Amino acid sequence: MQEPHLFVDVSAHGFGHLAQVAPVLDVLTGRLPGLRLTIRSGLPTDTLQARVRSGFTRLAGSSDFGYVMLDSMRVDLAATAHAYRRQHADWEHRVDLEAALLAELKPDLVFSDVAYLPLAGAARAGIPSLAMCSLNWAELFAHFFGGERWAATIHRQMLAAYQSAECFLRLTPGMAMADLPRLRPIGPVAGVGNDCRQAVRAQLQCDEDNRLVLIAFGGIAQRLPIADWPPIPGVRWLVPQDWALAHPAASAFEPLGRPLIDLLRSVDAVVGKPGYGTFAEAACNGTPILYVRRDEWPEQDCLIDWLHDHARCREISQADLLAGRLGEALAALWQQAAPPVP
Fold first, then answer.
1. How far is CA 175 from the centre of its chain?
2. Residue 170's closest CA among 120, 218, 130?
3. Sign of the alpha-carbon dihedral angle for 276, 277, 278, 280
4. pTM for the predicted model, two decimal places
5. Where would a tag sit more exposed on the chain, N or C end, judged by fewer CB atoms within 10 A?
6. Which CATH number belongs to the domain containing residue 260 in this structure?
7. Residue 200 to residue 222: CA distance in whole angstroms
8. For 208-236, how does the pLDDT look when each residue is reduced to its tens digit (9 = 90+)?
C-alpha cells in the first residue's frame, strides 16, 4: 500500500502560522509513521526544521503574502492593496497552475494555514483540503478593504476558495468567520517547551535573582531601542541576534542554541504583540506576558480576551514600550496569581 502523502502550505506572514501547524504535524506523524510530508512555505528551511520534528520535503515558494508590513505592528495598506489586486488580476490562471502542481504531486490531502490559493487549486484538481487557523485572509481583507469599489470580486474569490475546503478548523482563540459554513471550532494549539531555565542561567552567567525577559515579536522585524532604556535592576533582556545590541543587560538568544519554545517556557516573562503563536504558547507554557496592542489589527480582540482568562498578562502602551518604562508593569505582572494552564 502506498504511504499517505500530505501537502502542507504554511504562510510566512511571521512565525505564528508555523507555530500552529508544527505541533499538529508532530502529533500526526507520531500516529501515522508512514506519512509523507511536503511543506511549501516562504519561511527559511532551518526555521521549518526547528519546529517540525519529522522529516519532510521542502517545496520552495510562497502561495500567499498575508499583509505587507511596515514593521511587526503596522500594516502597509497601500502596498497590501496593490499586492492583492496584482494577485487576483489573473486569478483563474493562478488557480489552474496550482491545480496542475497539486495534480503532479498527488497528495491525498492539502492542509493550509492559511493561504487560500492551495484550497482553490485542490478543489480544481479534485483533491480534498482542510484549512486551519485563528484567522483567514478573506475576513481581514473585508475589514481593511471592504468599502473599496475594486474589492468585491477579490473578496468573492477568496471566500470561494476557503469555502471549497472540506472544513476550516478554527483555533481557539479565533475570529468569528461567520462567512465559512464548514467551520469547525477546536481548542488551542501550541508547542510546549522543555524547562531549561537553570541551564540557560548558567550559559548567561546570571545571578540567581536575575529575571530573564524574552523580546518576541513573531518573526517580523521590530527593533526596540533597548540601548536607550533606563536600567531595571535584576532584569536581563533576551533579544534577536540581528539587533547586534551591545548592552550589559541584554543578550542574543540564538547563540544559546536552544529552541525558542524552550526559551519561552524558561524565561520569567515575554514582551510581544497580539499574535496567536506568542499568546497561545505563553499561556500554554505558563509564562507571563506583557503586550502592546496593534493598530487596526482585527484579530487582536479575541486573542486579548482569551489571554486575560488563561495567562498572567498585562497591557502596556507603545510609548512605554519604546521608552523602556516597563519596571512597574513587570513587577505587577509577577505579582499576579497564575491561572490554570489551558
1. 15
2. 130
3. positive
4. 0.93
5. N
6. 3.40.50.2000
7. 24
8. 889 999 998 865 556 888 989 999 999 99
Domain-located, residue 106? yes
Q: How far apart are CA 306 and CA 293, in angstroms?
A: 14
Task: Tell whether 190 is covered by a domain.
Answer: no
Q: How far apart are CA 35 and CA 257, in angstroms?
A: 29
C-alpha cell, 171? 483555533
Q: How many domains does the chain have?
A: 2
User: Beta-carbon neighbour count of residue 296 at 10 Å?
Assistant: 11
What pLDDT digit, counting tens, does each position of 18-29 carry? 999 999 999 999
Give the CATH number of the domain where residue 37 resides. Answer: 3.40.50
Q: Identify whether 230 is part of a domain.
A: yes
Is position 192 within any domain? no
CB 276 within 8 A of CB 189: no
Q: Are residues 75 and 46 in the same domain?
A: yes
The long-range contacts involving 176-180, CB below 8 angstroms and separated by at least 24 positions, are: 176/139, 177/136, 177/139, 179/138, 179/139, 180/136
176, 225: one domain: no
Other Cβ atoms less than 10 A from the Cβ of 332: the count is 12
- Range of the structural domain that residue 249 is part of: 197-335
